[in-house]
Structures are given as structure tokens and as C-alpha cells.
Fold this protein.
Amino acid sequence: MTDRNPSAANPAATLSGVWADAWRDLGLAVRTARRQPAFTLFIVLTLGLGIGANSAMFGILDRLLLSSPPHIVDPDGVARVFIEKSPKGRERFSMATVSYPSFRDLAESRSMARVAAVATGQMILGSGADARAITASKVSGGYFELLGTRPALGRFFGEEEDQPPSGTAVAVVGHTFWTRDLGGSAAAVGSAIHLDGTVYTVIGIAPEGFTGDGLFAIDVWVPLQAGRASQPAGWRDDRGLRLVSLLGRLRPGVGRGPASEEATRLYRRGMEGQFFADPDDRVALTAMIPGVGPGGISEQGRIALWLSGVALIVFLIAIANVTNLLLQRASQRRQEIAVRLALGMGRLRLARQWVIESLLLAVLGGGVGLLVARWGGDLIRITLLPYMARPEGIDWRLLGVTGATVLAAGLLAGLLPAFQAGSSSLLAALQSGRQARTFRRSRLRTGLLLVQTALSVILLVGSGLFVRSFHNVRTQDFGFSTASTLLATLQFAPGTPMSRQDDVYREALGRLRTVPGIVTVIPTDSLPFGPTSAPSLDVPGVDLSVFPQSPFLNAAVPEYFDVMGMRILRGRAFTAADDAGGTPVAIVSETMAKTLWPGQSALGRCVRAGFVFDPAEVKQMPCREVVGVVNDARPRSITPEPQPVMQFYVPYEQVPPAPVPDQPAISGLLIRTAGDPKLQVHPVQRALQSYASDLLYANVRPYQEIIDPKMRVWQLGATLFTAFGGLALAMAAIGLYGVLSYMVAHRAKEMGIRIAMGARSADLIRLVVGEGLFFAAIGIVAGGVAALLAGRWIEPMLFGTSPWDPAVLAGVAATLTLVALAASLLPALRATRTDPNLALRAD
């Protein structure tokens, strides 16, 4: 007896038949897409933007919170070292840098197989007018062995090349630097490069994409001892000089907790006897994830998480929009569906065909999404996260996430149309009067529209809050002005005496005063948001031990307060008479005056200051007369500090002797320009770059650039929330337009009857626009409620505004209303052009 169903006995034949049907469905999907190019293009672009936004944010999120830096072997076994401090009266905080002696202390740990020190900054490549700054890491000899990285070419340096006092002048260059500056040739190994005036031999090329232990794109790695060979040798023994960050590789079977406890004991033992030591300090070991520290997720990490959620909302809006359009097309093809069902096509096969069409559109959208992710990710890194290196080569994780997003998009957008197609009533589709049922099914599309609108409200509220926060951060009063100010710092050849460096700075003062557009040039040693110092202080009649923070010291020439845009509130500013031979004087900040002498005048008071270890020695210092009170200037924090920050100023020539011998008196030049300081950067740099043989490089930048990185969190939130919110708003407008156009087209008979009964154009416009505004109002209310509920989670990231800011909520509601009005007008005008004769004969 023969089998009547050969395929049942032959699974291979069954599988072959399924694949054949799938290929035929795919071919039909391709032909359908070609027949409607405009529709297809819109769907692909919509999905591409939604998929691309998620992929771009995943790339950022992955680098910050999900992955360790690339090319680290067994990154779970490597830890970053932080020092956690709990000062009295202040919140707990952590420091990422320690002194070199503390590095030696922790290197004795038995819990860690190896400890490495890292100091990342700039080195000067080349000399003369062609010199430029590159990013360099000065690392201890065991750094590369600790990470487990292998070079692409040549070799890495080790402990033997990082021995005091000067190490060996060898260098490992980054892959990008190798291809860009050294020609990408194997002959680069063994070549010489000039760094900070010293000739280094290139011994190795780092693998592609390697950024060391962080996210920075590193150009070159050199031994720590060689990189600091020109510095006074005291840095190796000064426990108050925090120069390096530390990494440790845990021994097998040792957790971070026990290793932290041992490291804490070693650190505290090494700090015993230091007057600045805190017995409560502890060592914390954290994972190599860049966006996570001892206190949890960093501000950048929290913003990245929020923005990833925002990108997901954009993706859902795109899916809702595409689903709406596919439902509309399914309604328009009901006659075709009915014919196929009548000819014997199964409903499951029909639904599968719709899903394949949706998946094809999603795959095409995924291709667009990869481009959006690549360009968008680059744009985010360049403008908002410039410290983050661009991934080199193929990012397989990003491809995997994009592929999963494409599959999700295809299924989510295609299931509802497939269900509608598969559940179509054959009789209803073949009958002529289908208007009632078709219009009833549009309720699903209306629901999707409301979801789009509500999600758009959430994004726009977030955008408004971050824009206001960023505006508040930028426009707050820091107590000084950076509008027309440049800061120039000079880097000298190794071995240049400190006195010679001061002489070059003084020569530069006169040289720059002849540059057109320069108003004032003054020397500086300490500036807001720059290095600060807090000497020991004695104020007769005041117990300074009750204050959690010692006052900061600033050196100032007579022109300093004018250049910085600061105001003398009482008393006087410094004058030329306040020189080294004059009476010791000081000017105190308003907060210091109110804190130390509440309700009294600070003028004429005595302040003694000095960089001494024994507090008793301070009382032997000369008494400085307070001659003025100046307005407060924010010294280091972009946001107001919880405790008052006291500051005082002394004339430049009356600064107490430095705590470390042989330190330069001048560390930079503050330059006031007549116009936009950015236009003066290159003229000033040209004037400085090559006029002294022992000057390697002049770093000139607008002073505002020192502060801008501290605002980047709010800038990132404002920019991306606004971009995603605008995209969501456009999609919601298109979705509303589609729903109303669908409604007008399928209510043509009703419109014709209304016109025949005497309805005016204004009546039809009012009807259609009213429905659009009704949909928008429901979405605004639903989205507004959701935004209010989510406010408490976003509140810690805002500045100077409430998550329930009524002005923002009102602005979003007004914006959505105007957009809904604009999106409703075209369908409304189309309704007024309905021909009642044709509409009444349609059925």
C-alpha cells in the first residue's frame, strides 16, 4: 500500500517545501515593495531611524557600562584602585589617584599578583612650530603584562625598562597613531620619535582598538620613569603628590572584598605619620567597567542608561507608526486577501507571508540603522563624548544587537497586520459595502496613534527639562567671567631650570602684548577649576579646626580681578606697592569674611598662612592684613558645594614659599581678548611657539574649555533628548496624519451626505481637526501623567529645575497641540473637496 502523502514520510521533502514557500513569499514581498516605492522608502527610513537610534546608544552604553576596555585578558580578574574618603561634614567621595609611594605600598599585596601605575595626559610630539600635543600614558613596567595584551607588532616594555632614576626611552604606539603618523609600516618598529624633547625608540605597535585601561584613544605609551625623568626626583617619595592611578590583577580565587581589606591595611600603614593622613581612608577595588566606580554608576553612565531608555521609546514609536501604515495597507488589500483565501490559501500561510514582508522591510531598515548608528555614534563621540575612542574594525556586539533589533522590529510591526489578514472574513471582504467594518478596525490604529503621542510627550518633557538644566548650568553666576579669556601654558624641554621657565613666561608677557586683539596679559599660578592649594592657616581668635575645608589660596597680580571680571566689595584691590618688599596683605572672599568674622568687618584683620607641616610654625608667619573683600568665585565645582568654600588672595610676589622646593612661580598666562577668544588661539600660539629654544609647546585654549567638560552631562542629555524628542514628534505627526487621512478616505460617503445636506467647508474642517485635537489631547494627558510619575527618577540629573516644571509641561502640551493642528489640516481640506455625487454612488 503506497503512502498518499509522501512528504509525511520524507521530512526533507517537507522542509524543502517550506523553504520553497518561504522563497516564494519573499519574492512576493520584494515585488510588493517595488510596486510601492514611496511607501517602502518611508517604512524603511522610519525603521532605520528607530533601529539606528537604539544601536547608536547601545554602542555608547556598551563602552560605558557593559564592557571592559578591549584587548584585556580576563578583565574580571583586573580591578581599578580607588581611595574612599569620609571627611567630617562632607559627603563620602573617592579619589582615582594616589602617590607613587602608595603605589609601592600596594605592590606588596599578596592578594594581587601584580599592581601597575598609570598617568595619562599629554606629551609633545616634535619640536618648534610643528610641535603638537598627543595623548600619552606613562605606565609602570608591569602594565602590559597585567592587562595580558599582546602587541600587533614588535614588543611591549617591561619592568627592566622602568627602573629609576630615568628608565629607558622606549615607546609603544597606538594602532591609529601608527597608521596615521608612521605610515602603517612594519619598519616603524625601531624608528625614533621626539616626545617632550627626548628621543624615544618605538619598540611595539598596540593592537587595533586597544585603549589601555580606559576609553581614551591613546597615541603612545612610555615607561613611567622615562616619562617623568625631567621632573625633580622628589615625586617618588612625596606622599602628598597624587600622580598615578592604579590597577591590580587579583590572584586566582581571591575576591575584591578581601583584596580591598588587605590593600586598605597597606595604604594606611604607609600613610602613618603624614599630617594629611585620614585613618578612615579605605581602598576600594572596582571592576574595569569605565562607567562604574566605588559609588556606583557615574553621571555619564546614568545619562547613558536614561538615553538608552529614550532610544527604546523612539524605537517603539517607530514600530507603532510602521504598524499603523501596514494596517492601513492591509485594509486596502482586503479584496486581494479575500481572493487568495477563496483560492485555497491557508490563513497561517497568509499570515506568514505578511510577517515575511514586514521582516524584509525591517532588514532594509536595519541597513539604514547601521549607517545611522555609525554616523550617530561618531557624532555623539565627537561633540559630546570626545574622550571616547572610536571603535576600530567590526563591532560584532553592535551587529548582534542590531540584528536582534531588526528581528524584533519585523515581528512587532508585522504581527498585527498578519493577524488582521489571517482573520479576515471572506464573505465581508467580497461584499461591496465594507465601509462600516473597515472603519471599525481603524480603532486599533487609533490606539497605536495614542501610544505614539503619549510616548512623544514623555520624550519632549525630558527634552525640556534637560534643556532648562543645561541653560541653568551655563548661565549660573560662577563669580568670574570667561567670555573673552584665554589660558596659555608652556611646556619646556627636559632639564630647563625653574628660574628659566619663569623668565620665559615673563618674556612672553611682553611678546603677547603686541599681538593685535590682546587687551591684557597677566601671569597666574592658580585659577578657578584649575589646580588649587590650601596652606596651613592661622587666624587670631578663630578656631579653624571646626571648618571641614581649609581656605584655598590664590596668587593675584593687581590686574587679576579685572581680567577675571570679579568685584571688590569692600576695601581695595592690590596695587603695585604690594610687592615683595611691601607690607604683607591679603584679600578674602565674601564667604570667608562672613564665616570667620560673622557680623564684623574683615578689613584690617590678621591672617597667617604658610606651607608648613607643623601647625605651630604657622603662628610664626608674618601677619597679613586683610585689605579687601572680593565676591565669591566657584573654585572647582560646576554646582554649588554643600559647604561654604572659603578663599583668599595674596599678591603674586608675596606668595608663601612652595611646599616642594624648586617650583616655578608662574604656571600659565591669563589673556583677555578684545573679541571672541577662539579667534585669537592661533595668533597667540604662533607668537609663543618657537621664540625660545627650550620651549617645546604652547598650549593655548579658551578658558571656557576648562569648564565645558564639567557641563557635558547636561549637554549630552539636552542634545540627545531633544534629537530623539524631535524625531518622536515628527513620527507622531505623521501617524496622526495617516489616521485622519484613513478616516477621511473611508468616510467619503458620510462626507458626501454632509455636503449634500448643506454642510459648509468650515464644518468639515472643524470635524476632522476636532478629531485630531481630541486624539492629541488624550495622548498629551496620558503622556503627561507618565512623565510626572517618572519625574522622581530623573530628578537627580537635573539642575535648577523641577521634574514637574509647569512651564515645561505647558510648553510640551502647546507644541503637541500645534503639531496636531498642522497634521490635521491637510486631511480636513481633502474632506472639503469630496464630490457628493461620486461619494453617494460609491456603494
